[in-house]
Design brief:
Layout lengths: L6 H19 L7 H8 L2 H12 L4 H27 L17 H16 L4 H17 L12 H19 L1 H7 L7 H20 L5 H4 L5 H4 L3 H21 L8 H5 L2 H7 L1 H8 L8 H20 L1 H11 L2 H25 L1
Helix pairs in contact: 1-3, 1-16, 3-7, 3-12, 4-5, 4-18, 5-7, 6-7, 9-12, 14-16
Amino acid sequence: MEKERDYRMDNIRFILIFLTVFGHMITLMPDVSLLYRTIYSFHMPAFLFVTGYFARFDRKRILTKFVYPYFVFQLLYLGFNSWVLDPGSELRIQFVYPFWHLWFLQVITCFYLLIPLFDTDKTWKQVIFFGISVGMALIVPYDVNMDAYLSLMRDFTFLPYFLAGYYLGHNKGMQRFWNRNVFHGAFIKCIVCVLAAYFVLVIAKDQAITGDILFGSASYPRGNYGPEIKWKTLIIAMGWICILLVMIPGRRIPLLSNLGKNTFSVYLLHACLVLPLRTMEIYPFSTGVNLLIAAGLSIGIIVLLGNSFVSRWFSILVDGGWIANWINRGAKRINQYLDSREKIHQ
């Protein structure tokens, strides 16, 4: 029988991919700073949390699902930028500075490689490792040399969220505790609604929480902020993750749950549509109407790129499974050759 899906996570992924596309669509829109900063305060931390929730250490998966697609899409988007977005500009091939949204592939590759280091069944060890990740997220930004190079700053910024998801997804005791009805009752939902309003109010009042800081790649000196802001953004992001877990239903929702399964193709492909749209005058109306246009375009992009047909072909074309098969065949032939040589010498 097919393993039962976690529809809550599918539904959360749909919301997060919508916020990702929508956030990119309103980047250059005036008068939406609060909405923009609110989205960026939690949508990528929550994505890393969900990624960690399902993560398993698998060398083949790391190579074929993350490393290989990164090199492919880095090349494609560098060419796309040189030939479409900025025609005539010099095409510079490099892989250490990811193109725009591709930092996510670098980060999750790093996190998956770290799984054997942080993997433990002991709850007290999980708490210690999580605390260490929070400490590194607070300390590393003091280094002004940590920047977008290999997404190193983002590795430390987002590691706590990945570990939180990983430990929740792999600790049965924590899952039983979290899934208790008390956390999904009407009273708790009222509380988290108030908490969400409070987070929005905090972001609205604290103008020091800027979009550049929320990107997760700015050091303290370059971002002109300090560890107190880092603490505040971490607490807000963790709070929003709890809000999503409480508020989002765990049942299958037609269309929404299906699209939530296919966020990877949307994430990697949406830039080829969003970036050209951002160069056009598509927001000539009032702020409210412009937001409706951006929301409609975002949903259209998700449906276009996240439907089952596109996702299936995307997986076939981008999957690097052939690399693993090639390596396995090569290793098998080498072993056969060594065995034959050993028999000859016997």
